[in-house]
Amino acid sequence: MYRLVLFYLCLFNFCFSLYASKTIVKGKITDSESGEPLPFVNIVFDNTTIGTVSDTAGVYHLSTIQSVDSIRFIALGYHPESFKVHLGENKRIDVTLIPSTIALDEVIARPDNSRAKRLVKRVVENKSRNNPENHDSYSYRRYTQWKYRINNVPARMRQKSIFNNKEDIFGYAADSSRFMPVFSSEQVVFNEYQRNPLLYKSTIEAEKSSGPSLLEETEVSGFTASMEYGFNFYANSIEIMGHNFISPLANNGSFYYNYYLLDSIDLKKSTHYVLRFTPRRKGDNVFTGKMTIEDNRFSVVEITAELTNTEHLNFIRKFNIHSVYQLLSDSIPFFSSSELTTVIDYMPVEFKKNQQRIELLAENAIHFTDVEVNKERNVELSHRRLSYELVSRITIKREIPAIGNLFVQRSLQKKRRILINR
What we know:
The chain has helices at 2-20, 114-125, 127-130, 155-158, 219-226, 401-421, and strands spanning 23-31, 42-45, 51-53, 59-64, 70-74, 81-84, 90-92, 95-97, 137-151, 171-172, 178-194, 199-210, 237-240, 243-246, 257-266, 271-279, 287-294, 299-307, 316-328, 332-344, 359-373, 388-392. By secondary structure, the protein is of the alpha+beta class. It starts with a helix and ends with a helix.
């Protein structure tokens, strides 16, 4: 019995000595500037692996029976703090940490255009099979519309006697300036083409025009004729009024353009990539704009381009193109539609130098339907010695409102879809 009592006394003394030598530190950690509690601060006894972190209220509790002499508080973005402690003490230490300012060298961020270059390279590699003009034969029905209007019509011109009681012919532009429509035309043509032997036939099915013939004796009529067949960006260069402009899809396009990847859109059957292209140098005959590429055939879905240099084009101050391509049977690229907007700084009327310069706005829209490629039947011309023939089925000029309305509806649908995608 005596030995048992002695054993419990020794055990009690040993446990008491352990508790008496236990070091306990607790407290709260806050920001020295805001006074807000700091969570997730690292707290460790120096020269040990014993540590903890503060909770969401900044409160901590740390203890050890090892021999320690200091405790350290470390947090990202703050200066560390250290305090002395003594073995066996139970101590409260409330800590305020001071935010630290980290000075960094200047960092210049540059866009990575390597992926965009690779995409353009794949498009160039597949141009021969995707270029609609490379098919052995094709036919399509083309609707073409031209509209001309005079912008910035001054009040003095509207008040001329020739316009008496005709104020309703002047419209309002978005900037509240007045404009006057002067000419418009519509035409439906069925075109047939084959490469071997080379045969080409155009059949005019309908046409209509309205407005005075004032423009026919000016350079503007030649401008209209040169733009009649639209634009093909798969070509290495695009001819505009006798001058060649480098296409962003030219074989050596990277010498003239910078390419940047703006966005990617995952669809059911492919991914569409939106790229921006800009000139590498000033003064080159090039474009600036955006294009969308699909990754199944690496063909162009649509492209919007603006001329950056119009110095060589007489009277042309602005020139914008928007071309859309379609996939026939989900696999064969072909033209779908194009829109051209250009500002012509020329009028067949002289103005005083102190008068506001009047400009001519020309808008062109082209839409392709009933497309067939690689037809087995040959193009039939009226004589075997002909290689090209223009045929008109029109006996009298007639209106074509149904076709025009169809084009307008489809154009609005396309614009609405483009806006949603963006």
